[in-house]
Amino acid sequence: MEIINTIGRRKTSIARVYVKPGNGSVKVNERDIKDYFLSEIHQTLVKQPLVAAKADSQYDVTVNVEGGGVRG
User: Fold this and answer.
1) What does the pLDDT look like over 9-52, one tens digit per residue?
2) In degrees rounded to 5, what are phi and psi of residue 20?
3) What is the pLDDT of residue 72?
4) How far does Cα 25 stand from its chain's mean position?
């Protein structure tokens, strides 16, 4: 099983993203996306790239975020 990981930085914020084959679960800081992003708009924005690629139910995404805020 291949796990793809990448990192993104902006000012003092750091986001680490891990993508692996799975069933479409998305976790942010070890919490389900619906628990981390209470707004449906934010949930949709996070899932948008996978939906556009028609791969939203094929991969599990885990994100570790430090700094910024929920909207960032």
Assistant:
1) 999 999 999 999 999 999 999 999 999 999 999 999 999 999 99
2) -140, 155
3) 58
4) 9
Please give the backbone phi and psi of residue 15, each rounded to the nearest 5 degrees, phi first. -125, 130
Please give the Cα distance from 34 to 12 (Å, whole number).
25
DSSP 8-state class, residue 34: H
Chain mean pLDDT for the chain: 92
For residue 72, with 0-12 CB atoms within 10 Å meaning exposed, 13-18 middle and 19 or more buried, which class applies?
exposed
Provide the whole-model pTM: 0.85
Using CA atoms, how far apart are residues 37 and 39, in angstroms rounded to an integer?
5
